[in-house]
Amino acid sequence: MRIAFLCGCAEGGKDGVGDYTALLAGECERRGHGTLRIALNDRYVTGAKRGDGTLRLGAGMRWSERVEQARKAVERFGADVISLQWVPYGFHERGIPWGIEKGLERIAGGRAAQVMCHEIWIGARVGASPKSRVLGAAQRAVMRRIFRALRPGCVQTSNVAYATLLRRAGVEAQVLPMFGAIPVTGVEAAREEGVARFGMFGVLHPEWRIEPLLGRLRGLGKQIVIKHIGRTGTGMLPEIKRHGEQPAERVSQFLMEMDFGIATTPLALIGKSATVAAMLEHGLPVIVNRDDARYAGVDIERAPEGVIVMDDRLLDALLGARRRPPHPRLPEVAEQFLESLAKSRAATP
Description:
Blueprint: E1 2-7, H1 16-30, E2 34-42, E3 48-51, E4 54-58, H2 63-77, E5 81-86, H3 100-108, E6 112-117, H4 130-150, E7 154-157, H5 160-168, E8 174-175, E9 195-201, H6 213-217, E10 223-229, E11 241-242, H7 248-257, E12 260-263, H8 274-281, E13 286-288, E14 307-309, H9 314-320, H10 330-347
Parallel strand pairs: 1-2, 1-5, 2-4, 5-6, 6-7, 7-8, 9-10, 9-12, 10-11, 12-13, 13-14
Antiparallel strand pairs: 3-4
């Protein structure tokens, strides 16, 4: 099968969806499938830049020119199926790329299509502001137009909350689990008696709060060490030791040295976090201390395997938790992805 991936940006380490697409495409290649990655709104290049299996189209180019170059590239490549890796803000600064559906339809040229919704629309949370709800309605309208234009045989997303919201909007979406962006290359380190090490990875948003989590962790009766690696964001606190951005190999070793991971993503959206996926793949039990993203009628019945929710049973859960052997998810996710593409092709006239 020959797969053309469409995303916003392909600058390594600068765009989460772009990195996700590169890893997934690489795994598909290893399984004998041809791939082409096309970045349709790349802010890190000027004009068109071609690389090994990649076409990057600068955000400063006219949209009609980007569409035409992408269409020709897909035609030359001989794609059997189009995979749109969708996130609204990857294609427009406000997440409302009006008219994008016509360009995507032209690029796809009637081929079978799959859409992976990394993000959907804002304003769906309980208590969202009127401005967010209005903007979200526009984003939802854009998505509906894309679905009508591409007629995807398969729509996927990374978590139950998004799948439920898409279903309410008339789109049946499957859950395709997230895989980590950091390959497991590190080796487990010796443990220091009387010390509990907690690792954080990725941007720390200001919505995340260290209390009351830190106070509860002190109940373990051990020295509590919290370290962070990666881009800090705006929510960094003095109680957290910073390591800054590091190569993937160093991040992997960092995760292997920790006893637990701490997520900054809300419980309802934990499935969409590539950093949480990376911690789980490295065998870390992961604590979630945010439950502030609620969606009307969407119930999260239980936490995913390996995830510990901060509640009155937190200390018992931590005392009973153990590191698991590392287990990269990418191969099994790629297998599920390829199966969905095969079904999409079969369903396309």
